[in-house]
Specification:
The chain is elongated and about 65 Å long. The chain folds into 2 domains: 158 residues, no CATH class; 96 residues, Porin, CATH 2.40.160.90. Strand 14 and strand 15 form a beta hairpin. It is an alpha+beta fold.
């Protein structure tokens, strides 16, 4: 965002009315900073500018006269299947329709975004900082402890056309459930939460495991048939889906342990 595109103002001591959680945890939107920067797709600053611009678009379109605060925090993370660095975002005080809009638009980052990631407490003492604030029907970016810049839409974020088309083809099943059966006789696990992304000939299945996240990634070798890998745990798997079905079924093996899994897709 260029200097000419913003307007500076000084808030009175009573403003801004920043929104906090009073120590309560909230779901976060997580961005894989390591992969985005390694692949030269987006810097952290560009991701933050994207979210601020999307917020300004939404506030302007809805003529929103409430107030809310977007906080962010950087931390090491293994949630994307590798040891890396992530930026976490929370949207406090904003309606659910705002969060849904941001989550949908952020799918432009494809496999590098988790729209419902860890349950965290945004605490300034723990390194969380205000990225921007919504008030007076405008979005404000903080320059220092006194001055704020209005995020204006004189230059809208223009998405790479190819990446946008790819994004539109990806379907995210955030509320999916998974059953796991073990061939060695261990008790089967039923109804575990998982997230599935399918599109552009690829599939990603992720779920919580031993305090972290397991991530199986693979490709569609023929229509409805997927081959996946989880290299960090020497995992290999298959999944199959009939046309118009919301169920995936297949086999898996991890370090000599084998089994069967079934996933019920749910957005």
């Amino acid at each position: 965002m260029k200097k000419d595109d913003v307007e500076c103002r000084e808030y009175t001591p009573a403003f801004p009315n920043l929104v906090t959680t009073d120590g309560e945890g909230v779901y976060t939107l997580e961005v894989d900073s390591t992969t985005l920067m390694k692949e030269g797709r987006y810097t952290d600053e560009e991701v933050e500018n994207l979210i601020q611009t999307l917020a300004a678009q939404w506030v302007q379109h809805h003529e929103y006269d409430g107030h809310g605060t977007i906080w962010h925090w950087g931390s090491p993370s293994v949630n994307f299947g590798h040891q890396g660095y992530s930026i976490f975002f929370v949207f406090l005080g904003m309606p659910e329709s705002f969060r849904e809009y941001i989550n949908t638009e952020m799918k432009v980052l494809k496999e590098c975004v988790r729209v419902t990631s860890d349950w965290l407490v945004p605490d300034p003492a723990g390194g969380w900082a205000v990225m921007c604030h919504i008030e007076d029907k405008k979005v404000w970016h903080q320059l220092d402890h006194v001055l704020w810049q209005e995020v204006k839409l004189t230059e809208e974020f223009v998405m790479n056309e190819k990446e946008q088309n790819q994004c539109e083809d990806i379907v995210v099943y955030q509320q999916s459930k998974m059953d796991t059966v073990y061939y060695d006789g261990d008790v089967a696990e039923e109804g575990d939460d998982c997230e599935v992304k399918i599109g552009n000939g690829e599939i990603v299945v992720s779920y919580e495991e031993d305090g972290g996240f397991a991530v199986y990634k693979g490709e569609e070798v023929s229509e409805g048939h997927f081959v996946l890998e989880y290299p960090e745990n020497k995992g290999k798997a298959s999944l199959h889906r009939f046309a118009n079905s919301n169920t995936l079924e297949g086999f898996w093996v991890e370090g000599g342990v084998k089994g069967f899994w079934r996933i019920y897709l749910e957005k």
